[in-house]
Write a structure and sequence with these properties.
The protein is of the alpha/beta class. The protein contains 18 helices and 25 strands. The chain binds glutamine.
Length: 548
């Protein structure tokens, strides 16, 4: 069994410094040295998972193969490492406390007083170790929040203890801070970093490496000053400068020598192989074409709420060397009079996932517009449901067609609530009852899907069976299958037992590229292996543009 080494990443000064990206990039560099690496995120908030949080607060809810609803940083980890994450890669304080309280109810603490130290910290250490599977060389652990927050204290205390438990040769602490540039005095400032490291040290952690987010590279003097005040060697202070695209971060860190320093301190072998990252960036930086894609959705105000989708669209352009310009279009602002103005100039239209009926009429208009104008169209989850409803209403003559989600009393619920389904992992029949709580009432995680030969879907994947991740309550209602098929809609993907419709499309003689899927393909796209549906969608958009 390997003795996994641990890299703990904390953040200081303020949130949104990009700790997740920093961890993912260091992880990617270590992986390129031939090491087996994974990353875990510990979030200090009390929700059991982010599944019930509004995407406007915390950005996208990312879904893993095993059906965990997680922080969007897990998406970065998968995209940068190319390895699937699981439930073990993410814990919130809520889940930790939940486990502790369950233990207490079961009498596992033998009548003792249950306290933050040692019971909560022990549970955190158990959670960290659970992710350090025996095949791993390195587990990176990102602590959410900012050092000094009351909520994150138990986590920081737990990682402090781990150094004693595991031995100092197996633990490394990286602290990410900010060095702001003050325009008035015309100089970068180290004081926030000093304070943040002081805070960390007051809890007992001396960082091994300090990474400073800054607009420009730190001067030698600045590094020296930070090293002196924060008690680290001069070569352990790095600048993490702002870059043009996120996939440049691993290269930038490598140029800085961060991975070498980490490897030296943890005695890790190998040499980083950054060739693939260089080639990727060369393609991203020198596009030969450009396409304009409209994303018609509800949370368009915050691109963080569609993080994976945004990335998957970018990946989709890599093959064709096309720069993908994404235009966020608020579906609530769309009406039949302004459609041409908002959608006319686009080469492709995408409707992403979403919940509730707000903005749906605008999405239906966009689906109709794309169908009639033969504009490449991609409907994902709610987007597929809109595709189906629009087709039912305007082509199949089912005027009142809608989703049970929007109108539970409607006669023609062409999208309806699934109250029973078989979980293919456990083989168990799952039931949704009226008292189900809000979490975990969805079809979540990876499910197999069979593709019909000769369809756009099958041509894209080039495989008869695929596995894609789900996060939804409602499904296509099979009572309408024959009628819709007779009206010309092609059903191109089904669950293996044929009970669930997973993909629909229009025949290519009717429309160049019009496709919907009930799952979320964006979660599995990585820059090194762009997802086939996004690749084909962007290709279709490009040929629409060239044939205009
Ligand atoms: N609201 C729809 C459902 O629950 C779609 C969900 C989604 O797009 N993720 O089925």
């Amino acid at each position: 069994m390997k003795k996994t080494k641990f890299i703990f990443v904390t953040g200081g000064v303020l949130s949104s410094l990009g700790k997740g990206l920093a961890a993912a990039s260091i992880g990617a560099l270590l992986k390129s040295r031939g090491l087996n690496v994974s990353i875990q995120k510990l979030d200090p908030y009390l929700n059991l998972d982010p599944g019930t949080m509004s995407p406007l607060q915390h950005g996208e809810v990312y879904v893993t193969d095993d059906g965990a609803e997680t922080d969007l940083d897990l998406g970065h980890y998968e995209r940068f490492l190319g390895v699937p994450m699981s439930r073990r890669n993410t814990y919130t304080a809520g889940r930790i406390y939940h486990n502790v309280l369950n233990n207490e109810r079961q009498g596992k603490y033998l009548g003792g007083t249950v306290q933050v130290i040692p019971h909560v910290t022990d549970e955190i250490k158990r959670a960290i170790k659970s992710a350090a599977t025996s095949d791993l060389d390195v587990l990176m652990v990102e602590i959410g929040g900012t050092v000094g927050d009351i909520e994150s204290l138990p986590f920081i205390e737990a990682i402090r203890q781990l150094k004693n438990d595991l031995g100092k040769n197996r633990c490394l602490y990286i602290h990410l801070t900010l060095v702001p540039y003050l325009k008035t005095s015309g100089e970068p400032k180290s004081k926030p970093t000093q304070h943040s490291v002081k805070e960390l040290r007051s809890i007992g952690i001396q960082p091994d490496i300090i990474m400073c987010r800054s607009e420009e590279a730190l001067s030698a003097d600045m590094r020296k000053k930070i090293a002196l005040f924060c008690d680290v060697p001069g070569d352990a202070v790095f600048s993490a400068i702002d870059v043009r695209n996120i996939y440049e971060v691993p290269l930038e860190y490598h140029r800085e020598g961060i991975d070498d320093k980490v490897a030296k301190l943890l005695r890790l072998k190998g040499q980083a192989e950054v060739g693939p990252w260089e080639r990727l960036n060369a393609r991203l930086e020198n596009p030969k074409h450009e396409v304009n894609i409209g994303m018609v959705g509800k949370y368009v105000a915050l691109s963080e709420s569609y993080k994976s989708l945004h990335e998957a669209l970018t990946h989709g352009g890599i093959d064709a060397q096309a720069k993908v310009n994404i235009h966020y279009i608020d579906s609530e602002a769309l009406n039949s009079r302004n459609l041409e103005k908002h959608l006319g100039g686009l080469d492709g239209i995408l409707i992403p996932g979403g919940f509730g009926d707000r903005g749906v009429e605008g999405m239906l208009l966009a689906a109709k517009y794309a169908r009639e104008k033969k504009r490449p169209f991609f409907g994902i989850c709610l987007g597929m449901q809109c595709l189906v409803i629009e087709y039912a209403r305007n082509v199949a003559g089912i005027e009142g067609a809608t989703s049970e989600e929007f109108n539970p009393k409607a006669k023609d619920k062409i999208i309806y609530l699934m109250t029973e389904w078989v979980d293919h992992r456990s083989g168990r029949r799952q039931k949704r009852t009226a008292d189900s709580d809000l979490g975990g009432t969805m079809r979540l995680g990876s499910y197999p899907c069979h593709l019909m030969p000769g369809t756009l879907a099958q041509k894209a994947y080039k495989e008869p069976e695929i596995h894609e991740r789900h996060r939804h309550r409602f499904e296509f209602n099979n009572a309408y299958l024959e009628k819709m098929a007779a009206a010309g809609l092609k059903f191109s993907g089904f669950s293996p037992d044929h009970t669930l419709v997973e993909m629909v499309e229009l025949p290519t003689k009717e429309h160049p590229w019009y496709l919907g899927c009930q799952f979320h393909p964006e979660f599995q796209s990585t820059p090194m292996t762009p997802h086939p549906l996004f690749r084909e969608f962007i290709k279709a958009a490009l040929s629409h543009k060239n044939n205009k």
